[in-house]
């Protein structure tokens, strides 16, 4: 098997050769108003009770209103009472840290092949002169089961595979409820989005490690992007901040709230909701002293599915904003490479 051409961030750090130029961001000109490592205000997003969202009670309706308000402004919510115990989430965080702490040779057993996304490696190099993100990751397709490639599922740390399998099944329950809740919050029949999303939808989980970085003013953990998924379930680090969302041209940091899952809308949900729910641009900044981890699961419609605004959200007052797209993720990378917002391709 071909080995990846570039070193992981952990290997760069271990080599002790200083910071390679490939990680240095070009000046964007707006550093003065909001420098990469400067203080940013915290975003004001609600914690939504998932167990209430599908209830017909007064409290349930109130929760749906909160969901609508957060997703149509920020495109992000914290979800609590999601049915996954704190002890289980802690196990995921622990296994993530243990995986990245393994010796390089052990991690390389799950190394990504050149040109493919799945497996262990550094920021994927998609174009020449790309400034690299300060991140190492393990990217695994977890669902449907027949699409799993076990060679990318680490055998160590012990329990990783079983726990990831269990986490996938638990997340599926959350995903279905969340789709139904989003439909209800827009006055639609419960299955409106699920029917379009499809039975063949995939889940990809990405374990992210951001080692301490010598130049947080010049180096970024993940460059600004919006997710190409329908939506993303995220477990941000429980102690170390870093995730920021862009709203009206300003960056805000995501709060850390224990025992919640952060869910952000992705481009394909923005399309299905005819633009009512926003796929937010976000980034991750680096930290000089502390290592940070996160675990993101991307929920992606099946490749054969045609994704478009659902009927109930198109009217004379609100004309259709997006074309029908298929295999959006492929299109996503073509645009991303050109430094363009992939969403542009879907706009009518
Ligand atoms: O590390 C994080 O908190 C977010 C990572 C992210 O945005 C992504 O993986 O798409
Ligand atoms: Fe993201």
From TrEMBL:
<dbReference type="Pfam" id="PF14226">
    <property type="entry name" value="DIOX_N"/>
</dbReference>
<comment type="similarity">
    <text>Belongs to the iron/ascorbate-dependent oxidoreductase family.</text>
</comment>
<keyword id="KW-0560">Oxidoreductase</keyword>
<dbReference type="InterPro" id="IPR026992">
    <property type="entry name" value="DIOX_N"/>
</dbReference>
<keyword id="KW-0479">Metal-binding</keyword>
<dbReference type="InterPro" id="IPR005123">
    <property type="entry name" value="Oxoglu/Fe-dep_dioxygenase_dom"/>
</dbReference>
<keyword id="KW-0408">Iron</keyword>
<protein>
    <submittedName>
        <fullName>Protein SRG1-like isoform X1</fullName>
    </submittedName>
</protein>
<dbReference type="InterPro" id="IPR027443">
    <property type="entry name" value="IPNS-like_sf"/>
</dbReference>
<dbReference type="InterPro" id="IPR044861">
    <property type="entry name" value="IPNS-like_FE2OG_OXY"/>
</dbReference>
<dbReference type="InterPro" id="IPR050295">
    <property type="entry name" value="Plant_2OG-oxidoreductases"/>
</dbReference>
<dbReference type="Pfam" id="PF03171">
    <property type="entry name" value="2OG-FeII_Oxy"/>
</dbReference>
<feature type="domain" description="Fe2OG dioxygenase">
    <location>
        <begin position="201"/>
        <end position="301"/>
    </location>
</feature>
């Amino acid at each position: 098997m071909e080995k990846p051409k570039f070193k992981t961030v952990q290997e760069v750090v271990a080599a002790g050769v200083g910071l390679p130029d490939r990680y240095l961001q070009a000046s964007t000109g707006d550093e003065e108003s909001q420098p990469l490592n400067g203080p940013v205000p915290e975003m004001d997003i609600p914690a939504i009770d998932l167990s209430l969202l599908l209830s017909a009670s007064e409290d349930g309706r109130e929760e749906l209103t909160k969901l609508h308000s957060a997703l149509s402004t920020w495109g992000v919510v914290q979800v609590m009472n999601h049915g996954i115990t704190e002890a289980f989430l802690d196990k995921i965080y622990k296994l993530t840290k243990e995986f990245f702490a393994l010796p390089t040779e052990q991690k390389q057993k799950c190394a990504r092949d050149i040109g493919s996304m799945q497996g262990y490696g550094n920021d994927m190099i998609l174009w020449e002169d790309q400034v690299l993100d300060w991140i190492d990751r393990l990217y695994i397709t977890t669902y449907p089961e027949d699409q799993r490639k076990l060679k990318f599922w680490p055998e160590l740390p012990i329990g990783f595979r079983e726990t990831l399998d269990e986490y996938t099944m638990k997340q599926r329950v959350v995903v279905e409820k969340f789709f139904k809740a989003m439909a209800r919050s827009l006055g639609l029949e419960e299955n409106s989005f699920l029917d379009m999303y499809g039975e063949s939808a995939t889940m990809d989980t990405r374990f992210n490690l951001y080692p301490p970085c010598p130049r947080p003013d010049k180096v970024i953990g993940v460059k600004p992007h919006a997710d190409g998924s329908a939506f993303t379930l995220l477990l941000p680090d429980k102690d170390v901040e870093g995730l920021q969302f862009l709203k009206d041209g300003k960056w805000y940091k995501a709060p850390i709230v224990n025992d919640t899952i952060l869910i952000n809308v992705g481009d394909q949900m923005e399309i299905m909701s005819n633009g009512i729910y926003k796929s937010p641009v976000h980034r991750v900044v680096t930290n000089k002293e502390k290592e940070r981890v996160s675990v993101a699961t991307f929920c992606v419609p099946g490749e054969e599915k045609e994704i478009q605004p659902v009927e109930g959200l198109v009217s004379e007052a609100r004309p259709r904003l997006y074309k029908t797209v298929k295999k959006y993720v492929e299109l996503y990378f073509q645009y991303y490479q050109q430094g363009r917002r992939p969403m542009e391709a879907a706009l009518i």
